[in-house]
Structure formats: C-alpha cells, structure tokens
Amino acid sequence: MARTFMKGSEAVAEAAVRAGCRFFAGYPITPQNEVPEYFSRRLPEVGGTFIQGESEVASINMVYGAASAGVRAMTSSSSPGIALKSEGISYCASARIPIVYTNFARGGPGVGSIQPAQMDYFEATKAAGNGGFQMMVLAPSTVQEAVDLTVKAFELADRDRNPVHILADGVIATMMEPVELPEMMSEEKVAEIRESKKKWACVGHELDYANRSWIQPGQWQTTVMQKCNEEAAALYESWKKNDVMVEEYMVEDAEIIITAYGISGRIAKSSVDILRKQGIKVGLIRPITLNPFPTEAFEKLDYSKVKAILDVEMSIPAQYATDVEAVVRRRCPVEKCLCSGGNVMSREAVLEAVMKIAGQEA
C-alpha cells in the first residue's frame, strides 16, 4: 500500500479501525488526546461506536462491556489515566475478556508531567492490577511499529482471550512519520470474528463457568478460582515459548551491549551505528515484547567477550534494568544511562555512557 504521513496517536487509532475495532471508550489526557479525537470521527464512518466516558473508570468498564459482547474494543490513556483503569483491566483479565489498550506514557509518579517518559514499566509488566494476572506487553519504537503491533494486539487478545497492552510513550504519540497502513478489514470478516465468540460472549445464554464471560466479584468458589489461575499461568508460560519478539542488532561480535525499549531503543540503535564507525564493538538488544521478556537474547551472549551491558531508559530510578539484571545474573556489569520526568533520552548521553565503559573520551 501507499505510505501516508501520520501522527503516531492517529496512526494507532486508524490501525485499530482497520483491524476490526468497532468500539472505543476513553477520556482526554495529554499526550494521547488525538486517539479519542480520531476515533470520534472515524468509528461512525464504519458503523462503530465512540464514547467519551465521564472518567477513565467509566471508560474501561464500557470497553469491558462491549468486549464481553464479542466486539473488538479498545481504550487508551496516559500514565495516571491508566492507573485509574487498573481495576477494570484486572476484571477483564479475570473474566478472560480480549481487550486492547495503549498507554502513551508520560512522567510521574502522580500527575507528573505531560512530557514523554518510560516510568510505567513496572506497572505494565509487574502490577497492572490486583491478583497477579499478566498481559502481553508490546513496545513500539517507531510509528510504523506502533501500527503493526496494534493490529497484532487484537489478534493476540482474541487468540488468548486476554487483555493486551501496547506500552508506547509521548514521543511515539506526537511524532509524525510515514507509515504503511494495513488493508481495511471487510465487514464480513468483522462479523465473522464476532460470531466466533458466541460460545463465551454475553449474548443471552446461561452462565457457564467453563466458558464464562463476566465476573461476579466475591462469588467464585475457591476451587473454581484456583483452576482459573492455573489456566492463566499455563497461558503465560506458553508466551515464553511462542511469542517473544526482540530486535538483536550487531550483537555477534559486540563487546558492549546496549539494551533499551521503545523510543530509547530507537535512539540507542542510531548510537550503535555511530559507535561502530568509530571502531567500538557495540550491539543492541531491543525488546519488542516486554512481557514475555526476551530472556534468550541475553542468555546466548558470550560473556567472556561482553564487557558490560548498558541499560538505556527514560526512568529514574531504573525499572527495565531490574529484569535485565535478573537475566544477566552478574555475568557482567549492568551500567545505566537514565533520564526521567519528561526529559527525552539524548543520543549524546548514550554515546558518552558507552565511551566511558570503553575507556575512551566522548
């Protein structure tokens, strides 16, 4: 298809529509306001429904309801707004309801700043809500990747009957890049997907614990709840075998490995190119799935050659580094190059950090 020039937030919304999303509920918050604005214009054109909820809490529960009826449904927000949606997301996970949501993250904690940040890694991968549930977490580094991962997120959500989280940031939301959009899903295909969910969707049949599609808080028998938890745990384990996505760039002979995700990963990759021209053997490991984590990419490194791993992230204190350190297991030092609070990672900071590890002047 022809490429078009789009802002990241709008490109994600258009990709969702083309992937068959026919319901969106959300609430305004910077820097993702263009997402609901775009949906408000676009969804009526395809027979879909847009609702601006009175709050984030209302919005996520509207998405819960629409997805429970078999509709491909989505919401989006930014950091503190996502925190408010956490209970509803947890309900969707417990009820095994396939939803997609995007966090265009900003600085924090609390209301924080409206500028981009990567301070929601723990929230996304460790504690998106109560009860220990997990989701696949996808982290785009370009607008094109955000488009592609949005389409994939709906496929994964339906496959697993589980929420899928796209963790982006304010840079991806507000930057404009040329993108190639997917083909528009036919209405026949949209109807076919919805029809395929009738076995479990809330479409008038009696409650069936084996194929439940809603949750009654406090009403589950403990044996039923444990069985559901066991099934979920098996699902999460399957992701580690089948669904890891990671970019490994120039790692074969690398003596220093930079690791970063999202926009920091993009900045780090350009730094690798510059450093290679200077004769410094640097490589990049960029997770595309934050959960499941790309453990194998770190395990197969030759630690007799790797002097250090440099964690690059827009979070102070570091969060992503915790998982990196757990996988590396002290086989080499894990150094950090950090910024936070709405400051965007600079290439100069990455170059300086690598030069310091290499024992050279920046």
UniProtKB/TrEMBL annotation:
It comes from the Bacteria. Residues 254-347 form the Pyruvate:ferredoxin oxidoreductase core domain. CDD domains: TPP_PYR_PFOR_IOR-alpha_like. Residues 14-242 form the Pyruvate flavodoxin/ferredoxin oxidoreductase pyrimidine binding domain. Keywords: Oxidoreductase. GO terms for molecular function: oxidoreductase activity. NCBIfam families: PRK07119.1. This is 2-oxoglutarate ferredoxin oxidoreductase subunit alpha. The lineage of its organism: Bacteria, Bacillati, Bacillota, Clostridia, Lachnospirales.
